[in-house]
Specification:
Elements: E1 2-8, H1 12-18, H2 26-32, E2 37-41, H3 47-54, E3 60-64, E4 74-78, E5 84-87, E6 100-106, E7 112-119, H4 128-150, E8 153-159, H5 183-193, E9 199-200, H6 201-206, E10 232-236, H7 238-241, E11 244-249, E12 265-269
Parallel strand pairs: 1-2, 7-8
Antiparallel strand pairs: 1-12, 2-4, 3-4, 5-6, 6-7, 8-10, 9-10, 11-12
Helix pairs in contact: 4-5
Length: 271
Amino acid sequence: MLRIATVNVNGIRAAYNKTRGQSSGLSEWLATRGADIVTLQEVRAPDAIVHEITAEAGYHVVHAEAAAKGRAGVAVLSRAEPTAVRSGNGDGYFDDSGRWIESDVPLADGSTLTVVSAYVHSGEVGTPRQDDKYRFLEQMATRLTEIRASGNHGVVTGDLNVGHTERDIKNWKGNRKKAGFLPEERAYFDRFFGDLGWVDVHRAVAGDVDGPYTWWSMRGQAFDTDTGWRIDYQIATPELAATATTATVDRAESWAERWSDHAPLVVDYAV
């Protein structure tokens, strides 16, 4: 079995300090969840801090830090030492944005798994932020095609900041004209899961149900009423996706026990 977990930590230092020493904390989760691979987004910390916080969990750590301090940042933690690492999604415009990192991880059968930790822009309608989001998603489509053509297994994980269907957002009617649920954004995901042949593993395992959500606002009663969004994904090549046995959202027991506004998405693959 191969267990892959992904989570937007919303600042790794804050997540670590918020529940330090608690049984539900970030460091305890890393140490006990039994994941072979963990991907992190919105790390927002220097490389040395990332290695320090994750050291006790015993992973090999690769990290793409954003040039803008305190912003973005993505990482891949793996039990097996990666054979190659690439930062950026192939479009030089995003090379220092801390939004895409690839790690080639060897599997037990001798094959290679290309693991991506991605953090897509949240966007904002009618602004350059939304233009950057579309440019990133377009380059993501190009990179997905290249990964499939490489012959490796592939899994793109992370906070992709788009709800693909009405099942993915509790209040979808009120968000149809907002970034995160725009028709133009969702069309990219139609391509990913259609012509490009990748699989939304969480949806494939969960079936046609509401959610299960992975993000809830820290404000108001969103968490308590499960008014969430499913915007954290594991997108896999079809051969890998076909081996997925379970997909679990590690939702905190209570609002007070949360160490991020996102919850980890954990998938087990029979490889």
